């Protein structure tokens, strides 16, 4: 899928950014939780390959009247949807949509569990920089506890040969992740970043915190903010990543987010190509 994303980037560089690969197929973007990057990039990815796109936003739907996930999916499937892209606040929701619809489903983020296409685009962005992930150290710093991005990256990046170091205050660093192959946990940000080739800041997900996780935001920023001072510990050409959305000057300084090391907008750009590749793989090219 990462190799095919190279081809998709070439398509996106053409004056006419469209291919007929998914002509006649309908992709439903079913978003039960807010999104900017994932929703828009999946929508564009499907349109770039000539699919029809049905965008379903739960907030303006009959879900707000109490309609169940099952009934909602059965209604949408009756329109002859060929595949779903699903974001939901509950872990496992994408599996339920697959069960209720009998259609291919791409998980676009479920609760704190997984965000696989984000991990793919992160891997793609590091690979674009270095040619390979083999032997690369990737530090992921911040609210690991609530992060589906951290979990998916911890699963994917070691499979591609990288070492992953997850870092944050002890209250935001679940020990259950320690046993994953190729993954190390630390509460020391300098230790995490030392010799790293890529440093990813994670958003503090205050909407998922009911209190007691942090003494103060200022104290958090003092110890864990990804900024130029912390980046001094990394490899000289190390890049800065953030899956977005960012709390600027909290988990990442504006200087680091906008500076020459930043590949944050490159992640966004690559997201469209990677998601085109995923849709193609799922609907056309698996064999
Ligand atoms: N990274 C990410 O999933 O961003 P959105 O919530 O804007 O889709």
From TrEMBL:
Residues 2-128 form the Aspartate/ornithine carbamoyltransferase carbamoyl-P binding domain. GO terms for cellular component: cytosol. InterPro entries: Asp/Orn_carbamoyltranf_P-bd, Asp/Orn_carbamoylTrfase, Asp/Orn_carbamoylTrfase_sf, Asp_carbamoyltransf, Asp_carbamoyltransf_Asp/Orn-bd. PROSITE patterns: CARBAMOYLTRANSFERASE. Its EC number is 2.1.3.2. Pathway: Pyrimidine metabolism; UMP biosynthesis via de novo pathway; (S)-dihydroorotate from bicarbonate: step 2/3. One of its GO terms (molecular function) is aspartate carbamoyltransferase activity. One of its GO terms (biological process) is 'de novo' UMP biosynthetic process. Belongs to the aspartate/ornithine carbamoyltransferase superfamily. ATCase family. L-aspartate binds at residues 65, 148, 203. Transmembrane segments: none annotated. Catalyzes the condensation of carbamoyl phosphate and aspartate to form carbamoyl aspartate and inorganic phosphate, the committed step in the de novo pyrimidine nucleotide biosynthesis pathway. Coiled coil: none annotated. Residues 134-282 form the Aspartate/ornithine carbamoyltransferase Asp/Orn-binding domain. Pfam families: OTCace, OTCace_N. Keywords: Pyrimidine biosynthesis, Transferase. Heterododecamer (2C3:3R2) of six catalytic PyrB chains organized as two trimers (C3), and six regulatory PyrI chains organized as three dimers (R2). This is Aspartate carbamoyltransferase. It comes from Deinococcus gobiensis (strain DSM 21396 / JCM 16679 / CGMCC 1.7299 / I-0). Carbamoyl phosphate binds at residues 37-38, 87, 115, 118, 244-245.
